[in-house]
Amino acid sequence: MPTPLDPAIIVWVPQQQTSTKESRTKLPAEIKFEDAVFNVGRTALLVAALAAGDVRALSIATSDRLHQDLRFTKAPDSKLALNAAVDAGAWCAWLSGSGPTIAAMVDRDSSQRIADALPPNGAKMVLTIAQSGAELFAI
After folding, report:
1. Is CATH 3.30.70.890 what the domain over 7-128 is classified as, yes or no?
2. Number of Cβ within a 10 Å radius of residue 84
């Protein structure tokens, strides 16, 4: 989707790993309706924030009530990495999948500085985002 932003994604992969199956055991069997609505609403806000280039709304859009805090109990270094990314200037950050990997959306020009601020006990990667999406070529 087009965005006026020039983002990069920083991924921090800690040395400590967790299994998705184990991570799911931390989640409740049922969730509050209000929490589900909260997260679904944030999805719509994320799309709107990217389309408008509203970096302030991105951190609100990536807030979560369903799983991140529960999963951080098993991966506290991931919570430290998320906070370090935001403190260093990331527009937003989130737990990637079931964790413990963290992803952060940042201004491309600040990406290396923010990556350098992440904890040393994990691999750091700066990724670019393809604006064109999938392309088909005739052979």
Report:
1. yes
2. 18
